[in-house]
Amino acid sequence: MFEPLLKERPEAVSKVRAVTGDCSELRLGLSASDEATLVDNVSYVFHAAATVRFDDPLKSAILLNTRGTREVVELCKKMKKLEVLEYVSTTYCFTNVPVLKEQPYPTDLDWRKMIQLAETEDQATLDAVSRKILDFQPNTYTFSKALAENIINDHRDDIPIIIYRPAVVISSMCEPFAGWLDNLNGPFGIWAGALKGLLRYSYGDPDVALSYTPVDWAIRGMIVCAVAKAARSQALSSTNPDQVDVVNMEGSQYEKLTYRTQNEDLKVLRYCAVQPLRYPGYHMTPCATYYWLGTLCSQVPYGIAMDLLLRLAGQKPRVVAINRKIVAANAALAYFMINEFPIETGKMNQLHFALHADDRPDFGMLLNDPNSHFVYVRLRLTRVSVAVIVIVTQSAFFFLTYCRTNGNTQKQLLKAPTSTCSMKKRH
């Protein structure tokens, strides 16, 4: 990812200094010397550290995502040159509202009491009451992030602070190149499993639109929001001065990309899947019964058979374990794949148009075509199609040349049917 930068400006690496820490620990696990360095020198803070696992225990999620945010705020209060603290949240932390507006929302539980509960109670006790505590929240991740937003809002008068909510982060639009991604979280994990032939069925509504943000667009938004907050931009002016500034970031605000559209892309991509374990075939259904029947009849028997073959080959069985992880991931994502959550993005649009014309190519954040970030896929398919046409054309040319050099084609077929069949097999 950083190769272009290292080639163009190798001296830039000298500006980076890593410090050892842990956001789940008090004082962020920083040493006294590292903390002093941060307090004396840092002016912009982007707090994006979090556990993004939906099935994390409640205790772990609160200590890392919620208490960790409190510790970051306390550190920022000491910073001598602080211009802005930007908290990176998620557009899914308040799924109970009809439309997620660019404003903070209260939670029924106080973040102070929840941190105290996580610090004093053991994990088993919290797990026993987690469903009651979570209330409308689908998982511990969104719950702990919602509490963290309340921390940020409560400290809005202490330091310059802003909440930035990106949607589902997917592969890059432009930088470092179109289609770059370093993990298989979210929808791309489903695509990878489907193209490998492992995932056959998933539970979700094909007509639900995915709220997404290309990863480089998300980073652009982070930078623009921080600079705008430090400069007190009018684009961030809140209708309620008693609330923290909040910016929602979604790349699909003009045209929606549904799961059905993605599934159509998968039907094309299966012809150029790289080393699939079996022929790809993927179905998304909103019917839980159909999903479980399909999974039990297709994925489970295949996994058992493959593991048996691996055992006979003297290798460790792993396909059933992979299928188990796929089913667990689908269960965690099902709530977001079966429901649609409208998002308001007015401030992000204003920030985009407030940019100078010279800065928009590098920091612009409007994405009009939801399919445009798949340009690398279409380029690849174009190359594959051209290659297939060239191969077929060459094969036909060589076949006709062979027939002409050996006499009339029709006579060849009548006189030597056996050799002709052999020739067909070879070609």
TrEMBL record:
Alphabetized InterPro entries for the sequence = FAR (IPR026055), FAR_C (IPR033640), FAR_NAD-bd (IPR013120), NAD(P)-bd_dom_sf (IPR036291)
- Which Pfam families does this one have? NAD_binding_4, Sterile
Q: Which keywords does the record carry? A: Lipid biosynthesis, Lipid metabolism, Membrane, NADP, Oxidoreductase, Transmembrane, Transmembrane helix
State the reactions this protein catalyses: a long-chain fatty acyl-CoA + 2 NADPH + 2 H(+) = a long-chain primary fatty alcohol + 2 NADP(+) + CoA
BP-aspect Gene Ontology terms: long-chain fatty-acyl-CoA metabolic process
Q: Which GO terms describe its cellular component?
A: peroxisome
Q: Which spans are transmembrane here?
A: 384-403
Function summary = Catalyzes the reduction of fatty acyl-CoA to fatty alcohols.
Output the PANTHER family linked to this UniProt entry: FATTY ACYL-COA REDUCTASE, MALE STERILITY PROTEIN 2-RELATED
The entry assigns this protein to a family as follows:
Belongs to the fatty acyl-CoA reductase family.
Q: What is this protein called?
A: Fatty acyl-CoA reductase
Q: Which organism is it from?
A: Megalurothrips usitatus
